[in-house]
# Entry
Amino acid sequence: MKEPTSHDDRQNDADPPQREQQDANASREHGDGNMRQQPSPEAIRRRHRRSAIVARALSSVMKLLHRCAYGRNKNLGVASPELFAMMQVIINDWRGRPPITKMGIERHSGLPRKNVARYLDELAKYGLVQKTDDDRYIVHPDFYADRLNARYFSHIEAIFAAAANELRKLK
# Structure
């Protein structure tokens, strides 16, 4: 996977392998209305497997993050947008940028603007983010120290490592 070349988090930085892209292109319609050849069953099977690996990894990570951030106080469906907003704050801090605004979180995450303030209030309540004097957000100063040796993080790393290994084997 190549590194993103722009700061736009919405940029697609993980193009599918060339053979899958060729198969996808083969199924697109020509400008003259004629259909190209459909992808092979093997290409569809490979794409399905890759999607399942990624979905399993993301699902496992979201469940771990949810359990560690909220315990059993919220269901995952309610907490997921908050966790996604939190990820935007972490990414912004890691890039060394000034504290992020609500609008910046909305722009980078695609979360509805009307909900971002509520998500940030909840994250602050749980000690995950901190609001600055100028109405911007940073990762709470104690966030990393409180989680320095957290077991869940090594589990997350293992999940992503296993998924990356499986995806490499499919190439």
